Amino acid sequence: QVQLVESGGGLVQAGGSLRLSCAASGRAGSAYLMGWFRQAPGKEREFVAAIRWSDGHTYYADSVKGRSTISTDNAKNTVNLQMNSLKPEDTAVYYCAAAYGDPLTYYSGSAYLPLTYNYWGQGTQVTVSS
């Protein structure tokens, strides 16, 4: 089993920044992909960003591209999401996710899909006030 624990959410004014962190524990070896998704009230869960642990290749949703940076801290088995220039529409619960499947089964679009990920954190609330 894998445990994912998010931290770093909170209330911030529009234009501000937040850094979300996700600590992974409970399974030997790194995940193939680590991702962040978000879900606003009344909306479906949507992709935010992901990173391929082996080579650091990153993926971003158009809505956050240029404003967010995903990174890993291998020593701490942690993935971070730095979000800048936050907007009220960024308000949501942010979830960390990990994919431990066979890399040969993935294709280029897999990182964007919730079904790719085997484990999920409990979520952390991000609220951006206008």
Main attributes of the structure:
0% helix, 48% strand, four-stranded antiparallel β-sheet, mainly beta, seven-stranded mixed β-sheet, 130 residues
Layout of secondary structure:
Elements: E1 3-7, E2 10-13, E3 18-25, E4 33-39, E5 46-52, E6 58-60, E7 68-73, E8 78-83, E9 92-99, E10 119-120, E11 124-129
Parallel strand pairs: 2-11
Antiparallel strand pairs: 1-3, 3-8, 4-5, 4-9, 5-6, 7-8, 9-10, 9-11
Task: Give structural notes.
The chain has no helices and 11 strands. The strands form 2 sheets. Strands 2, 4, 5, 6, 9, 10 and 11 form a 7-stranded mixed sheet that branches. Strands 1-3-8-7 form a 4-stranded antiparallel sheet, with no helix packed on it. The radius of gyration is 14 Å and the shape is globular. Helix content is 0%, strand content 48%. The model has no long low-confidence stretch (mean pLDDT 93). With 130 residues, it is an all-beta fold.
Overall average pLDDT: 93
* Total helical elements: 0
Secondary structure: helix percent:
under 10%
Structural class: mainly beta
| H/E series | EEEEEEEEEEE
Task: Please give the largest β-sheet.
Answer: 7 strands, mixed
Label the overall shape.
Answer: globular
Backbone CA Rg: 14 Å
The counted number of beta strands is 11
Please state roughly what percent of the residues sit in beta strands, choosing from under 5%, 5-15%, 15-25%, 25-35%, 35-45% or over 45%. Answer: over 45%
CA distance, first residue to last residue = 40 Å
Low-confidence stretches: none
